[in-house]
Amino acid sequence: MKALQARLIPTLTILYITTGALDRQELNMSLWILWIGALGALEQEWYAPRIQRVISALGMSKWTDLKIVLECFVWNAKLEDTACWRLCDLVGISKG
């Protein structure tokens, strides 16, 4: 997992810089990539500002909106656990 994280961080950093140049589909995929990465990470704090930037660009503020995007890719309700709700809190997504 650490090797994968080490390879993804430079790419995700570039993504963070170029968010304004992405179309909606690319933003949705970026959100999914970041969300799944954050769920598997020991330190979600690194992912939080990047996720916030994407959800801001998409105009999201609620879990129901975010979940629709996640379900367009690979998502399982079993991922909606403590780590998921902590991440919601970190990025300012309302669970209601």
What layout of secondary structure does this protein have?
Layout: H1 2-18, H2 24-40, H3 48-58, H4 63-71, H5 82-91
Helix pairs in contact: 2-3
Averaging pLDDT over every residue, what do you get? 85
Number of continuous helical runs: 5
Percent in strands? under 5%
- Counted up, domains total 1
Distance N to C terminus = 32 Å
Low-confidence stretches: none
Number of strands: 0
- Choose one word for the global shape: globular
User: What is the ordering of alpha helices and beta strands?
Assistant: HHHHH
Based on secondary structure, the structural category is mainly alpha
Largest sheet: none
Radius of gyration, rounded? 12 Å
The percent of residues in helical segments reads 55-70%
Explain what this protein looks like in three dimensions.
- This protein has one domain.
- The protein has five helices and no strands.
- The protein has helices at residues 2-18, 24-40, 48-58, 63-71, 82-91.
- Helix 2 packs antiparallel against helix 3.
- It is globular, with a radius of gyration of 12 Å.
- The protein starts with a helix and ends in a 5-residue tail after the last helix.
